[in-house]
Amino acid sequence: MNKKHPKDVGLTYWQHLKFAWGECFRLGYMEFVMFVHGLIPWVWDWKYSQFIDEAKKRIEPQHKNRKKHYIKEQFKRHT
C-alpha cells in the first residue's frame, strides 16, 4: 500500500480526494450514458470516446508527476 500516493502524483490529500470523487461521479454519469447507448446505439455514439480523451487530459499532469517521483525514488535506491 502506497500511503504517499497523493504526494507521488503532486496533490495534497484533499486535492486527491476531490479529484478521485470527481472522476467517480463522471464515471457514474458515463455508466448511464453507456447503458442507454447499449440499448439505442445511435444515441451518444461519440460520448464515451470523448470522455476517454478528456480523462486522459485530466490525468496527464498527475501521471507526469508520478513518473518523475518514481524515477527519483529509483535513483535514490541505486545510489
Q: Describe it for me?
A:
With 79 residues, this protein is an all-alpha fold. The protein has three helices and no strands. Helix 2 runs antiparallel to helix 3.
In short:
The chain has 79 residues and is mostly helical.
Mean pLDDT: 90
Shape: elongated
What is the number of helices? 3
Order of SSEs: HHH
Q: What structural category characterises the helix and strand content?
A: mainly alpha
Major β-sheet, in short? none
Which percent range describes the beta-strand content?
Answer: under 5%
Helix content: over 70%
What is the terminal-to-terminal distance?
Answer: 24 Å
Tell me the number of strands.
0
Backbone CA Rg: 17 Å
Quaternary state of the chains: single chain
Low-confidence stretches: none
Which features does this protein show?
single chain; 79 residues; mainly alpha
